[in-house]
Description:
The structure holds 4 protein chains of 4 kinds. Chain B is built from 3 helices and 9 strands; from the N terminus they run ββαββββαβββα. The longest helix of chain B is centred in the middle third of the chain and has 11 residues, at 69-79. By secondary structure, chain B is α+β, with helices and mostly antiparallel strands. In chain B, 18% of the residues lie in helices and 40% in strands. By secondary structure, chain C is an alpha+beta fold. Chain C folds into 7 domains: 3-81, Roll (Ubiquitin-like (UB roll)); 95-174 and 249-277, FAD/NAD(P)-binding domain (3-Layer(bba) Sandwich); 175-247, FAD/NAD(P)-binding domain; 280-346, Orthogonal Bundle (Arc Repressor Mutant, subunit A), CATH 1.10.10; 377-419 and 512-600, Probable tRNA modification gtpase trme, domain 1 (Gyrase A, domain 2, 2-Layer Sandwich); 422-508, Aminomethyltransferase beta-barrel domains (Alpha-Beta Plaits); 607-717, Elongation Factor Tu (Ef-tu), domain 3, CATH 2.40.30. In chain C, strand 37 (674-685) and strand 38 form a beta hairpin. In chain C, helix 10 (402-411) packs across helix 15. The longest helix of chain C is centred in the last third of the chain and has 14 residues, at 486-499. The N and C termini of chain C lie far apart (89 Å). Classes of the chains: A mainly beta, B alpha+beta, C alpha+beta, D alpha+beta.
Amino acid sequence: MNLPCPNCGVRPITEFLYGELTSVPDAITDADARDVDRAFMRNNPQGPQTERWFHVYGCRRWITLQRDTRTDEVL
Amino acid sequence: MPKLDRFPLTRIVSTPALLDGIQTSTTAIVMRTAPDELFWLGSPAAPVINDPHAIIEHDTSFVGTWLSTQAATAWVSANCEWQLPTTRPVFAQGEVAGLPVKLWIEPRRMLVLVQQPFAADLGERLQ
Amino acid sequence: MTESSQPLKLIIDGQPVPFVKGDSVLVAMLRNQHHPTGGGCLCLGGDCPHCLATIDGVAYVRTCQVPARPGCVVACTHHAHAVPALPQTHHVEPTTNARHQHADVVVIGQGKSGLAAAELARTAGQTVVTLDAAQGQDVIGIYPGAQVVARTTQGMLIVHVRQEIIVATGAAELHPVALGNSLAGLMTARAAQQLQAAGLSLGRIVVINDANRLVRFEGESNVTAVVVRDDQGLEQHVGCDTAVIDLGTTPRNMLHRMAAGLPGVRVSVVGDAATNSDVPNCPAHGLVCHCSQVGVADLQSVWDRGFHELELVKRASLAGTGTCQGGVCLPYVRSFLANKGGTLQPAFTARPLARPITMGEVAAGGHHHVTLRTPLDGVHRAAHAHMERAGGWWRPWNYGDWQAEYWAVREAVSIMDVSTLGKMLISGPDALTLLDRLYPTKVSTIKTGMSRYVLLLDEKGYVLDDGLISKISDTRYTLTFTSGGATTAELWVRDWAESWGLNVRILNQTMSLGAINVTGPLAKELLARAGLEKPPEFLSHVEAHVAGIPCRIFRLSFTGELSYELHHAAVNAPVLWRTLLDLGKSLNIRPHGLEALLKLRLEKGHIIVGQDTDFDSTPRRIHHEWAVKLDKPDFVGKHAVLRTNKVSLDKILCGLSMEGPPPIEGANLTVDGNYAGYVTSATWSPILGKTVMLAWLKLSNDLAPDRVMIDGRPAQRTETPFYDKEGARAKA
Amino acid sequence: MNEFIEQRVSLTWQQPKKSYDVVIIGGGGHGLAAAYYLATRHGITNVAVLERSYIGGGNSGRNTTIIRSNYGIPEAVRFYQRSVDLYATLEAETDRWVMHKEKGMIGLAHSEANMRVEKARAAVNTAFGAKTDWIGPDEVKKMCPELDMTGGGHYPVVGAAYHHSGATARHDRVVWAFAEGAMKRGAHVHQRIEVTGLQIAGNRVTGVQTTQGDIAAGAVLCAVGGHVTSVAAMAGLRLPIRTHQLQAFVTNHYERTFAPILSSGPLLFYVSQTARGEMLMGAEIDRQPSYSYRSDYKFLQGCAFRAVTLLPFLRNLQVLRQWTGVCDMSPDYSPIMGQTGVEGFYITTGWGTWGFKAIPASGEQLAAAISTGKTPDLIAPFSLDRFALDRTMADRGSAGTH
């Protein structure tokens, strides 16, 4: 499986480290509850997810992309 | 085992726009490792950049070797999962033989560079 | 003697056996009246398990696919479906090589349709790689990437496909399922043709081309007759030496099923492999799965007990789980289940590997994860240091005598290679903003030329790392992190800088700078000898030359003694190291390794993040609240610290001391016989004459007990530091 | 016929009813074990297990069958030791052959740092009933003569933690033994029924919506693997779970002469030989979340490379099949079990790479929780609210590979 690095080109996924973008649902309003959600809870979607990857073997910069977690297809 | 040499270079970290504006040289090797970072190897010395916040470091930690095109092709074919760019000269970086390498590819030869902590393994894996 | 006059021989079960050039091992064996497994319908197409043998120490090899070579050693370890022994190989043979290739199109199979597909793609200007089992290119799997992986006669080949994978693997011939179908003398029509072409005599031949008429095969070990039903339904015995099976084909579509749906690439199937896989008639008797020895009666038995799903039948009977991975039996198992349940269930998932290959072949092209080496690695090894992997680096554990190293630090002077420390330079108008939001300390109060010990917290309020912030100017700072924490730190700092949109430049200097810690009461004297006239004061830093080498010198202390950390260009590390050792000879200098350092720092109560801290170490739990300024504006982890501070404290990291030798690190603490925590670090302190420890201690009723038991011995809670409580020695 | 054909278990399928006392979502080991223990320990048999595919078709059928209790924290050691004990008597209790075999597990150390970790683990294990000894290189070699003690010249073996009760059992057989045992006592197991929603009245779950209609329930246990986030969302719950791929592979079968379970943390590799004689191997989870069941070559290549470094004889074995399961990983590497804040809705998840070994204890404890309405002490530390309460169960011992 490959990821497209805008700085370096298409590279195997093993060159990258995974990072996540957290988002707390608006429905959670209590400040402490929001803090717990941000720290621990995960959307863990089955489908497209926007995510961050650090290109540790190449430019050592973060890239942002969308991936479908069902197929691993980069969108 | 091929002999690895030290390739002291200048690392410049600045804004992408200022790095875009740097005139490349016909004699020095200029590697754009990231939008905000550039390696300058060889003479003339790296040009002065108009950024008081730029980080300009003389970096002595890179070691490597020049491979003939034939040796480079064989090594890459056995050790590299990704496809090298086809233009020459060209800079490329990524994982080769399990190591984070920087490649400078010329029509008739290729420079393989790694940072010192990987040098011993590069030496073994170039065999 | 010329080559041609020397008969070619391979070794079968210890006996030299001649073969003819061009023979496969199987043909050579049959030519000499050997049958590798003793029976079953031979296909000679690599599809069935009936020609398995051990070749050159590798069991489960399909002998029909291996060209006979002189001296090749064959053992019939699969005769009558015996299970081969685990090989005893202890020596390491050279690894097969692996190659990578990139192409627009890969065509698997070079029969008529495969050739045509490749030609069409080439005409369209695409780069094409063709792989053909008949030419020794066995595709073992199709993987995300997309990658087509094949074992070839030149080693492993990994083709990275840009556009299309075309499966043109043809069709396999159906095998017979009837009583007696594991006798020798059965072969498919294609196999029979090949054997005849190779000049083998097949004797009397009976051709079976109608499964409905086949009743059974008869014979002791070789087939001697086939019983068929005639038009009137009567059984007819037909004597024979060879039963040729011509029952039609089933598409070889495993690779297509494996590849279907792969993202980023088109997958197509052409030729016979694309035909509909109609299933044969439901068998009534006989062996269905030869690999796992599963008969029709076995399928019936599991069906009767409620196993109806194909996957459950497979798992209950093990049909389809052997070396041919269902290649022979799957059509019949599906047919059986369709007959019982009324619906044809889809074939089970096609998983790699399509062809078994050895782990040695699979391992080709693999590498060990690199353990990093400092610029002084060669120097340590030349000094016969005992090197250990720690935090991703090779580090000197000791140089033969940790006690002498320890005392050199406490009483004279010592140096240590600390190049492994994470080192980072931050510059830019927003440098201070970035650090103030990242760290729980008030970075704005650090003065130019000064340093501060800092914790780095994550969003859970737990300790991620610790290190030092040093201010060079209002817009420039250096940061240090733990060894092994450098990459995490870099991606952490870059991530926040980006998400806050701050104007900063970041350089990770971990590998470009060497670092040597000069420590001990005579450290200042040593540096004076190296030409450093004005060493920095405690917690400050300067740029200066040491032994002629430009360094940034930090004054801090992990060992508890007067210490200077010299950061310098990596290239200069060996010279600086050797010069310091030379200059310190009369001061009784000796370098120290990690073993001595771990004891030195423990006497000072200094924690090691990752060893003494755990996943849930809040500053409060590790008694580092002083490092967190809750009265400053928001920083990463602030809310979590405020939130968790509201909860009662359940455990603390504390100092313990006891008489006698240290327990193991990890030893349990008990209070009144109940578990009360565990030791994270322990050492016998040479200078204090007792054991000192850090430990996680559970609170009971909001109180931390003063005394605990460890391995049946009492230990006392003790304030840290254990040694030089006022820090007079470090600040000297 | 081979000796491994299942010859005893009888599965009896029923038509779904409109209402059950307990509905269990997920017909894997955990769900079926819960049904089994509800029936056998609490006499609750008006129970349905709903499986969207076939029983044991998820991670129960994709794991590497290792049973052990050498975890890193007392709460986990105690819990997994309960599972080890239940596994040890499962064959006697169910009168079914699940191919359970105690083998002992060797956790190799290759450096001073490893040694420290393995010794610490042995201490906490032994204190909480999971006997684990530190053994030296000579003893390691005696227990596993196939080992290259130099680790291919790269990873010398300096010792190991030896966990006496490390065992294996056939994963499918465990699933079937629990399924049959529950069915025999009246529980229903329904395949090919997928839960599409939960019925909730006030703050109480009252039933499930399925692809075959609504089913009322007094209590609902979510025991799914891989889709737990979606099912929890039906109850309005957010979970601290990420779903990752875990890959494994197996060789052909050989004579059963490789005795132990062997693992190496630094090499990210573990191996055992199955009852049938296959060498079964695995490594670490993939770092990014994914629900894909596709295996990749680099995993196979890397794991095989590390494997032959330690066990050179593996070089000549033929790899037969590789596969991928998905595992639900919690931030503290510990499971999440029990009540959820929605009345009558129970959960068992966060099983990461250690779900198989937990099946009996998880089933037993959740059955107790459901039948009594009280959380048993053994699983109380693993409640979902521990994250908000700053009582996480950080377990370095389970952050291992299997």
